[in-house]
Specification:
heterodimer, A: alpha+beta, Uridine Diphospho-n-acetylenolpyruvylglucosamine Reductase, domain 2, Uridine Diphospho-n-acetylenolpyruvylglucosamine Reductase, domain 3, Alpha-Beta Plaits, five-stranded antiparallel sheet, 18 helices, 20 strands, B: alpha/beta, Fumarate Reductase Iron-sulfur Protein, Chain B, domain 2, Rossmann fold, four-stranded parallel sheet, 24 helices, 8 strands, binds flavin-adenine dinucleotide, binds iron/sulfur cluster
């Protein structure tokens, strides 16, 4: 964007946020060309980082008057390319990091969107409460990004995903209008606009502040590491635990490839490196109930063929077990220069079968697939480390990933559990949804962002919406169009 | 993909090219962002580890020239604190990448004229001794205290000097010990021996008291850390060779340092000479004998002494915590001192902004980082801040004086020494 028009927008933006926070030159935009999925690079036309709520509103209103498209960005840890701006304005919200209010009596807190998930919990710790959704990226990702992706995490098995923990939000619509959605007191009347906004991946506007639900820390927590010589034993144990009626706070699966990279990293957790798979199982509640549930978990694991089940004896050991799991994706970097992390959900009953299929797909493409995932809710994360400099490998990775996603869809699953569609999974949308459904999604988006200026080109394949927009008179036929691509 | 992999490199035989594997290890996960003091202070990812690594890749694959002013600015603004390393699951050797980048960008020269002069003084023993003697003379006068509020680097320099005045009384005692824990030679260090002479003597006393025998290594000199950090790898190697020879000759079982920055450097002598047939083995051997003083003391107990009745906060020097990965030993030393109440210090693992000569070269960023540190110290209620690195002692110490705060910065060894003196 070198036309004079763009330059003048930049000048006006500078007047709002200050010189240092409008970036235009190639070198300084490099850092913003990727999110947590480094396979994609898109250059924003410029990047702007407002430092307050008012500045953010002013910026978006300015962009509205000039008809400029923009992409909201939190910490850029997303794994679907959602925060990439392809020659449009990148709107960084990471400077809005104030915790506005902590109300323990009403068990809620209001935060700006750039507050980092773990920073909020650090702040809450002394009150004995926490914000439950705990994506593995909690040390880096923002609450705004979590809301936009409806992020999940290991403990969502028991506590639920982001959606279950947001009470209200102030949303800045792409046209500059400010709107309150949800109810800070937890009440509910009318259509669930908040529910629609959560998981909208930046396409419905910008979350300006977010009121989250707080949860009291359980009195007791028990964390166990179960060690299996066969993958099938671990998945059998998973099914047995869920069937038993015990609801673990978390139930995580890691295979041998994953265990090894974690054990080589500085977050080595003491996982057995000769295990085919391990399960990390956590139960919480009162002292008595946790002990009782852990006993059930332990015996079910042993019956399913676990070699050992080790329960952490102190908080430090427990944290160490969790750190290994949470840093597992990052640790993959030591295998090869590039990494794809997939995200799919399958019915839990199909776990054993799908894992075998994934393994076979990896083998037939000459690739090693590492698996680390939320076993409790069937949210898979197959990872492939590869070298992007080798075109042949890139193609094999691409084919293998498509085959894996197809297998998950065939098994009755979905293409994202928590990482969103973004850019990366656009092509799968037409495999999963028919045209009328996609068109309905466009309709919903139109209610928030009729011009499609907020995060353009993401989530719903553009053609589904473009036809819709381009030919309002022909909407009905466009909806029935069967041409998928 | 525009990662460096496979792209023909314009700097194929540069120091950075030799670190390609380290660059490749970064998966862009962002876990390092919140650990980075410059990112927190400046709020731009080009001032974060992840962003700087992207810039390094661009330098290596030729998409940015070494002369690019943005590249320069963001690489210069890095503290080199290496907090990103202990946050990184992928094991990215950020410290090595940074040194190699600086060396590649400048063809082996430090960035500014001022820094080149400063580094030349460090590399030249008689000059360094003279400079330190002058500084000591000045420190002994009331001048630094009178001028420490002056704006700018002059005032800050005065505050740093004034802060070298030990806040407790130094009572004399004679240290006895069996020597059965092994022999140790002290790396005197330019700034430690120059401005913290008494801390060096205290180090020798407390080690003796904990049954180490002390051996001299007379021909030693500057460790070369500041040169390496600035990308002057050639100068760093020259200085390292002198030290390797000196400590080999001493025959000491341990080489002990009370300056975290020097210790981190000496522990990495092996990497500095990797690929050098003549020196690599000798360098690794010497490096494997290097210990921070807190490691030796913690291994020996340490013995307890008299009561030191203060609220003490521990602030981890980056080069101890992140480079040497030593977290517990200094706390073990402090806990062994009767009377000390260890108070928690929020973000004690974050840089104070000293970072070698960074506080002189990048004053604005350094001040922003320091301010955050002073706020946390204020909130901790500590009377003393213990930290085992001369740069941090003066940065925090000077900052406390300029902010009219009550707390003072001390080396943990000095507290242990005072405790033995009070016994
Ligand atoms: C190693 C690793 C592990 C991960 N583990 C998990 C996990 O366990 N569970 C999980 O769910 N995810 C996980 N993720 C993915 C990622 O961290 C989450 O999607 C997270 O919610 C993204 O937050 P962010 O602040 O980085 O957002 P970004 O990546 O910056 O943005 C993500 C999307 O949100 C939009 N957005 C950001 N802020 C706002 C706002 N204020 N208003 C409107 N839209 C906004 C952007 O436009 C974009 O579409 C992981 C990522 C990594 C790198
Ligand atoms: S934590 Fe490590 S791998 Fe992740 S972005 Fe930072 S340097 Fe790269
Ligand atoms: S060395 Fe310190 S300042 Fe430099 S990138 Fe790493 S954390 Fe940031």
């Amino acid at each position: 964007m070198t036309e004079p028009a763009a330059t003048s927008v930049a000048e006006e933006l500078r007047a709002i946020v200050g010189d240092r926070f409008v970036l235009e030159r190639d070198a300084v935009l490099l850092a913003y060309q990727s999110d947590g999925l480094p396979g994609y690079h898109k250059r924003p036309s410029l990047a702007v980082f407002p430092g307050s709520r008012d500045e953010t509103i002013e910026v978006v209103r300015l962009l509205a008057t000039t008809g400029t498209s923009f992409v909201p960005r939190g910490a850029g840890t997303g794994l679907s390319g959602g925060a990439l701006a392809d020659d449009v304005v990148l709107l960084g919200l990471h400077r809005l990091k104030a915790v506005l209010d902590v109300d323990i009596a009403r068990m809620r807190a209001t935060v700006e969107p750039g507050v980092v998930n773990a920073a909020l919990n650090k702040r809450l710790a002394r009150h004995g409460v926490f914000y439950a959704p705990d994506p593995s990226s909690e040390a880096a990702c923002t609450i705004g990004g979590n809301v936009a992706e409806n992020a999940g995490g290991p403990h969502c098995l028991k506590y639920g995903v982001t959606l279950n923990h947001i009470l209200a939000a102030t949303v800045l619509l792409p046209d500059g209008e400010v709107m309150e959605i949800g109810d800070r007191d937890g009440g509910m009347a009318g259509y669930d606009l908040l529910g629609a906004f959560i998981g909208s991946e930046g396409c419905f506007g910008v979350a300006l502040d977010i009121t989250v639900r707080l949860t009291r820390r359980p009195a007791a927590v028990r964390t166990a590491l179960a060690d299996f010589a066969h993958v099938a034993d671990a998945t059998r144990a998973t099914s047995a635990i869920i069937a038993s009626g015990v609801v673990p706070a978390a139930l995580e699966f890691m295979d041998n490839g994953t265990i090894r990279v974690v054990e080589e990293s500085i977050f080595a957790a003491g996982y057995p490196i000769d295990a085919a798979a391990i399960l990390l199982i956590e139960v919480d509640g009162s002292e008595e109930s946790s002990d009782a549930e852990m006993e059930v978990v332990r015996s079910l694991c042993m019956e399913s063929g676990a070699r050992t089940v080790r329960v952490a004896t102190n908080e430090a050991e427990r944290m160490r077990l969790w750190q290994g799991r949470k840093k597992a994706f990052g640790a993959m970097g030591r295998l090869a220069p590039n990494l794809v992390v997939q995200d799919a959900v399958i019915p839990r009953t199909q776990l054993t079968d799908i894992l075998a299929q994934i393994h076979a797909i990896g083998d037939s493409h000459g690739l090693t697939v590492c698996n680390v995932f939320h076993a409790g809710d069937g949210n898979l994360h197959p990872n492939i480390s590869y070298d992007a400099g080798d075109p042949d490998q890139v193609e094999r990775v691409h084919d293998a990933m498509s085959a894996i996603m197809q297998a998950c869809i065939t098994a009755g699953g979905s293409i994202t559990g928590e990482h969103g569609v973004g850019l990366d999974k656009l092509p799968y949308m037409t495999k999963l949804f028919d045209e009328p459904t996609l068109a309905a999604m466009c309709d919903l988006r139109n209610a928030f962002d009729p011009d499609h200026r907020s995060n353009p080109g993401k989530v719903v394949p553009v053609h589904s919406c473009r036809e819709w927009l381009a030919a309002p008179a022909a909407r009905a036929p466009a909806r029935r169009a069967t041409d998928a691509r | 993909m525009t990662t460096s992999t496979g792209t023909p490199s314009l700097h194929a035989d540069s120091p950075l090219a030799r670190e390609q594997a380290g660059l490749d290890a970064c998966v862009h996960c962002g876990f390092c962002l919140q650990a980075c003091p410059t990112y927190l202070a400046l709020e731009d990812e080009s001032d974060s580890p992840r962003g700087r690594i992207v810039l390094m890749r661009a330098l290596l694959d030729g998409s940015l020239p070494a002369s690019d002013p943005d590249l320069r600015q963001h690489i210069d603004q890095c503290l080199g604190c290496r907090a990103c390393e202990t946050a990184c699951p992928s094991g990215v050797p950020y410290g090595h990448l940074l040194e190699a980048t600086r060396a590649t960008m400048r063809g082996g020269h430090a960035p500014t004229f001022a820094s080149r002069i400063l580094l030349a003084v460090f590399a030249h023993r008689p000059l360094m001794r003279f400079a330190m003697a002058m500084a000591r003379l000045l420190a002994a006068t009331p001048i630094p205290t009178l001028l420490l509020k002056l704006p700018g680097r002059l005032g800050f320099g005065m505050a740093m000097l004034a802060s070298t005045d030990f806040p407790l009384e130094r009572a004399k005692y004679v240290a006895h010990g069996s020597g059965e824990n092994g022999s140790a030679a002290l790396l005197l260090g330019c700034v430690m021996e120059g401005l913290f002479t008494e801390t060096n003597r205290a180090t020798e006393r407390v080690l003796r008291r904990n049954d180490y025998s002390m051996i001299a290594a007379p021909s030693q000199g500057c460790c070369g850390a500041l040169h390496a950090h600035a990308g002057e790898l050639g100068a760093a190697r020259r200085l390292a060779k002198r030290n390797i020879a000196a400590f080999e000759k001493s025959g000491a079982q341990y080489i002990v340092t009370n300056s975290a920055g020097c210790g981190a450097m000496m522990k990495e002598y092996g990497h500095l000479f990797s690929g050098d047939a003549e020196w690599s083995q000798r360098a690794s051997d010497v490096a494997s004998r290097v210990r921070d003083v807190s490691e030796l003391l913690a291994a020996a107990g340490p013995r307890s002494g008299g009561v030191i009745p203060f609220a003490v906060a521990y602030d981890a020097p980056c080069h101890l915590q992140h480079a040497q990965r030593i977290t517990e030993a200094p706390l073990t030393v402090l806990r062994a001192i009767p009377g000390i109440e260890l108070v928690p210090l929020d973000e004690s693992d974050q840089c104070c902004g000293s970072a070698g000569i960074y506080n002189l070269l990048e004053p604005e960023t350094s001040d922003a980082v320091l301010e955050r540190k002073l706020d946390r110290i204020e909130a901790s209620g500590a009377a003393l801040v213990a930290t085992g690195n001369p740069g941090c002692l003066m940065q925090i110490g000077g900052g406390l004086l300029r902010a009219d705060m009550r707390a003072r910065a001390v080396h943990p060894v000095d507290l242990l020494d005072a405790s033995y003196a009070a016994d």
